[in-house]
Amino acid sequence: MQIDIQFLPFSPDPSTLSRKTIVVIDVLRATSVIIHAISQGALEIIPVATVEEAFQLAKHFPQGTPLLGGERGSQKIKGFDLGNSPREYIAEKVKGKTLILTTTNGTKAFHSVSSGREVMAGSFFNIGATAKWCLDLDRDMLLFPSGDGGSFSLEDTICGGMLIDQFIKIGGKSVALTDAAQSAHILYQRFEDNLVEAFHVSTHGRDLVAKGFEDDLAYCAQIDITNIVPTFRDGVIRSSFAPSLSPQRLCRNREQRGRGSQVPKL
Amino acid sequence: MQIDIQFLPFSPDPSTLSRKTIVVIDVLRATSVIIHAISQGALEIIPVATVEEAFQLAKHFPQGTPLLGGERGSQKIKGFDLGNSPREYIAEKVKGKTLILTTTNGTKAFHSVSSGREVMAGSFFNIGATAKWCLDLDRDMLLFPSGDGGSFSLEDTICGGMLIDQFIKIGGKSVALTDAAQSAHILYQRFEDNLVEAFHVSTHGRDLVAKGFEDDLAYCAQIDITNIVPTFRDGVIRSSFAPSLSPQRLCRNREQRGRGSQVPKL
C-alpha cells in the first residue's frame, strides 16, 4: 500500500487515479464544512466550481429546497444561505437538505480527482474513521490537499501528515511512503501537540484571523468528532461510514490517543 | 523579500519570474555536478533536455572540444565522456572545457525557469555563497527543486530549507516565507545534523545506493566547499562569484557555523 500526497492542487492524470483511494483535504474550511454538514444530517452536498454554476444548478430544484453555501475571499457570497464556517452547518439549518457548495479551493478539488476509485472528504473532524477505512480498503492512496489559491497549503498538508501517522501506527510495515508523504508526516510531527499553532502560522489561517474568523481555527482543529467519511461520486457528496468502525470503537480510539480537544455533540 | 519554494518542477508562468531571483537545486546530482565542474575550472556548461539534443549541439563545435556529460536512469549515457557523479568532474578532465550536460531532472529545470531575473545553481557545495548573494540582491526569490521524475524530491527540498535557514539567520525580519518555504525550513531542521540520512531515506537517494553510487551521497552532502555560484543566462551556465563574498569571508562563515564536514580543496 503506497501513500502519496500531492503538494500542489493541479488535476492529476486521470489514468493514474483509477485504482487509488483519494482523500481530498481542505481543513480551512471546505472539507470541515462538508463533514460537519453531513454529520448534522445534510442529505447531500453538490460541490461546484463557480458561483454562477451554483445559482444555475439551484434552478433545477423546487424553489427554496437546496441551500447555497460557500465563500469567495473567505466571505459569504451575496444571495447565498450560508458561508464557509462549519459552525453554521448545524442540524437546525441543514438536516435533510441538499446543499450546493462553492469555495475557492476545496470544491474544485473534488472534480480534479473525480477519477479516483473512491474519493473521500477528510479533515481533523473525521481523521480516525478516514484512516481506518483507507486501511481496510488497502489500496494505493493519494492525499489531495486543496491548496491555497493554487499554492501549497501548510494546514492541509499537516492534516494529510496526521492521516499518514495513523496509517503507520495501524498499518505498520505494509505502508510505503513517497518522499512527499514522508515530508507531510514530518510536518505533522512538528505541530502534533498544537494544531492551532499550525493554523496561525499558515498563510490562509492568518488571512482568516484578519477577516474575523479566528474562532473557526480552534473549531476546525477538533479531532475525531464524527465517524462519518463523506464520499464523492457522480458529482455528489453523500454520507458514508467506515464499514468496520463502530461509533464505540471510534470513541475508544480517541480515548487511547488521549487528545483533550473539546468535542461537541454531533 | 519574499521566499517561496515550488515543490513540483512544472514550468511556472514566466511573467511571475521576471523580477525574481531563482535558485535551481538538484543535489543528487546535477547542480552538484555543475558547481563542482565550474569550481574545477570548466569554462561553461550548456544544459540540454535530451540526449539527442546533446549530440546535435556537439556537432556545432570543433571535433572533440565539448565534453558530453550526464545520465539516464542514473547511469552514464553511451557515447558520453562523463556520467553524473561530481567526483568525475575534476580539473584534469574539465579545466577550460565546454560541457554539454543532460540529466533526467536538473538540466530541464534551468529551462523551466529561464525567465528569472537571475537563475543560479545551488547545492550544499555552495550554499553559504548562494545565500549571501541572494540576500545582497534583496529580491523576491523562488527556490526550484528539480524533483524526481516530476515528483517531489526530499533532498532538494532540504537543501532549499537550508538556504532558507541562512536567509532567516542573516536576513532576520526582512525575510517573509510562504507556507511552502516554512515547510522546507522545518524539513531541513529535521535533518540538519545528518544530511546524509535525508539522502538515505529519499527515493532517489535509495535508488542511487542500489545502483552503486552510495559514495556520491556523502560527497554531495559536503557544505560550502566553494564560493562559486554558477548562473544560467542565454542557455549557458558560467562561473560567478557572490560580489561581496570574499573567499576569506566564506571560510569565516563556515567556521562560525561550526560544521565539521571534510572539505576537499577545489
Give the SSE map:
The structure is a homodimer of 266-residue chains.
Chain A: E1 2-5, E2 21-25, H1 30-39, E3 44-47, H2 51-58, E4 66-72, E5 75-76, H3 91-94, E6 98-102, H4 106-112, E7 118-122, H5 127-137, E8 141-145, H6 154-171, E9 176-177, H7 179-191, H8 195-201, H9 203-210, H10 214-220, E10 231-233, E11 236-238, H11 247-257
Helix pairs in contact in A: 5-6, 6-7, 8-9, 9-10
Task: Name a few traits of the molecule.
alpha/beta; 11 strands; four-stranded mixed β-sheet; disordered C terminus; 11 helices; five-stranded parallel β-sheet; homodimer; 266 residues
Would you summarize the structure shown here?
Chain A is an alpha/beta fold and 266 residues long. Chain A has helices spanning 30-39, 51-58, 91-94, 106-112, 127-137, 154-171, 179-191, 195-201, 203-210, 214-220, 247-257, and strands at residues 2-5, 21-25, 44-47, 66-72, 75-76, 98-102, 118-122, 141-145, 176-177, 231-233, 236-238. The radius of gyration of chain A is 17 Å and the shape is globular.
